[in-house]
Amino acid sequence: MNDVRPGRLKVYLGAAPGVGKTYRMLDEGRRRASRGADVVVGFVECHGRPRTEAMLDGLEVVPRAHCDYRGGKFQEMDLAAVLARRPQVAIVDEFAHSNVPGGRNSKRWQDVEELLAAGVDVITAVNIQHLASLNDVVEKITRVPQGETVPDEVVRRAQQIELVDMEPEGLRRRMAHGNIYAPEKVDAALANYFRPGNLTALRQLALLWVADRVDEALQMYRTEHGIGRVWETRERVVVALPGGPEGDTLIRRAARIADRSAGGDLLAVHVTRSDGLAVGASHASLARQRRLVEDLGGSYHSVVGDDVGTALVEFARAEHATQLVLGTSRRGRIERFLGGRGTGETVVGLSGDIDVHMVTHERAGRGMLLPSRRRTLSLVRRVAGPVAGLVLPVLLTVLLDGVRGTFDLTSEALLFLLTVVGVACIGGVTSAVIASVTASLLLNYWFIPPIGAFTLDNADALVALGVFAIVAATVAGVVDRSLRLSRRSARATAEAETMSSLAGTIVRGGATIPALLERTRETFGMESADLVHHEQPPDEEGVTVVAAGPGAFLVLRGRTLPSSERRVLAAFAAHVGSAVERARLAEAAAEIELVKAADRMRTALLRAVGHDLRTPLAAGWAAVTSLRSRDVEFSDEDRDELLATADESLAKLNRLVENLLDLSRLQAGVLTLDLRATTLEEVLPAALADIPDVEVRDLAEIPAVLADPPLLERVIANLVGNAARHSPPGGQVVLAASAHAGRVEVRVVDRGPGLPRTGRDRIFEPFQRLGDTDNTTGLGLGLAVSKGLTEAMDGTLVPEDTPGGGLTMVLSLPFAERTVYSR
């Protein structure tokens, strides 16, 4: 078990070449060396800068490895030598550099990761244009393609990232003074890549990227220490979208606020009320506004909440927002008077240390586009209804008494009935009953003879009172049912909108369990959302627990959810449960696929053994049977030929059986290795014994490799045999070797048909004979076994096209011994 402490990575990040990254990196190495640390320079490129070269004095430098590639000579970091030296700190320049092909790793950052895994601290440097996520952005700015990149995640994992910054004009002066490039390159650089605009844009990219990294570290610190209050270290602007056309104005205003501070974040949020009162928002407007937010570099969010203002503030606090942008109310004065406190007032009252901006727009004060609270029996309507049931009939009585004689009794009764219907529409059944009793009594007393007296014993009066009550109750019932249906429809629409948003997240690729949990936390404004697996639901105070499948529960911590939101939460939990089940089924399918692959392997093996072993077995058996026969007298020549046939057949059987055994050992992971220093001269005679006409080149001064001699012999024999089998008649197989970058490459070259463009990935699969229709030449195990044995010896085996036609198999193995260089 490897218990080596991984090394720590420090990255010097610059906006452009020449800002001083290498100088600062070497200065850091000198400081550490002065404090007693064991520091070596693995690779540094000074570009002929005297001040930078002077910083190498006193530092141990590991000589570079010399590589030959396509007729050119190159120098690379000798990773093997640095690993053998095992310093405490290694300085490695040009983090994104691509190594010469054929080396241990294709990228220098992969070399650095090996050093870190070995416990070596690494100091390195990289420019912003080499980060993979910004590569295309930099190319658009500078119009210069960047071929070498390093994944952002590799740089983000660094324990320290230090920005090396310089003003564009200062960098241009350094360039003009010849401190960056050679004099003959200065004019072209200043006129192209090093233009002031380019350098300013690159500098901004570097500052913003580092700011993002600092923000991640700060959020992690706040989470670990439970800090919930807003720290105004970076502007995060939340804009509330009501779902109307004014959302475009709000988004652009919020974007301008965010742009005032470099690196500000823009978050747009739409609150879907679980009680359905926020329905009526235009889905087309929200979809358009979502695209607008994303075009402006922001992000769109949707949350559920009974109270829009409270949900907005909770979301803003969860996202550590510093500013909240809302539109002014669309309600008129009467609506504001009757409707009570609005969303803006609620947000201002709850915002605390979050700044609130109320933005005017073209819809302000023009009435509600969305259904208001008055679409249901709010507190205002429940109070206004009974009052209207008492007051309106009295007012109508005063009005009719003033124009007595103008209307007959029938018209007066109809006017009272109309008043009762109006009150029923306002306040429901209770208000309708109060209005009907009041209206019938006033009609009886003031307008039915004898006027000024109640005649309740009169049949007409009783009928009028009954009709008033029946009509009022009927109208109130219809209104109440309509409101209930409207409320139910609104709730269903709100839930459908929320689930549609969730489905959109899944379609866009966010269907992983962590993504669904984060979506759930965000939608309901909770502090955290976790998936736990227990037989019984967790019994904790202050948490909301919902079943998410057999033995799985969705646990949310934060505010207490009302029952109206739990229904939507149950649907979210069902999606999470489905994701868990899909993950489980995917794992099961992967296991089944392994079983199926093994079954296909066994089937192919039985078919191959039944067919391909038959020929050598039959030939050997026939030869031995003939030799044992007493009925035939064989001459010496015939006897020798039969013995040779038997020997060849048995040797072929032996090779096939050995390949099968090796393949089974490789698949079972029980192959025993005896790695030691092995020279090619040691294994080639036996490997090439049965294969004539092999031209061997360039073996002089090839160092020993770390390998198992019998296995290496088998690998070379298989490769050469495969090449000979596919070479044209009279064609010769060539075996050549070369050494560079701590490894030996053995190339087996043939002039056969080569590999087809399709199916190349199957060349190393067992029982594959790509382009070979001759089933008498073996089981198709040679390359599969060769690749497995090579990788077991820490080597690589890759195919290449032979120039002019044919196939070249490149076998690469590490040196057996490393020379430790020091200065």
From TrEMBL:
Q: Taxonomically, which superkingdom?
A: Bacteria
- Tell me, what's a Pfam family for it? KdpD
| Keyword tRNA-binding assigned | no
- Could you say which EC number(s) this protein's record lists? 2.7.13.3
Q: Cellular location of this protein?
A: Cell membrane; Membrane
GO molecular function, a single term = ATP binding
Per its record, how is this protein called by name?
histidine kinase
Q: Which InterPro entries match?
A: HATPase_C_sf (IPR036890), HATPase_dom (IPR003594), His_kinase_dom (IPR005467), HisK_dim/P_dom (IPR003661), HisK_dim/P_sf (IPR036097), Histidine_kinase_KdpD (IPR052023), KdpD_sf (IPR038318), KdpD_TM (IPR025201)
Q: Where are the transmembrane segments?
A: 383-402, 414-447, 459-479
Specify the Histidine kinase domain's residue ranges: 608-817
Tell me the CDD domains matching this sequence. HATPase, HisKA
Q: Which UniProt keywords apply?
A: ATP-binding, Kinase, Membrane, Nucleotide-binding, Phosphoprotein, Transferase, Transmembrane, Transmembrane helix, Two-component regulatory system
* Major localisation: membrane
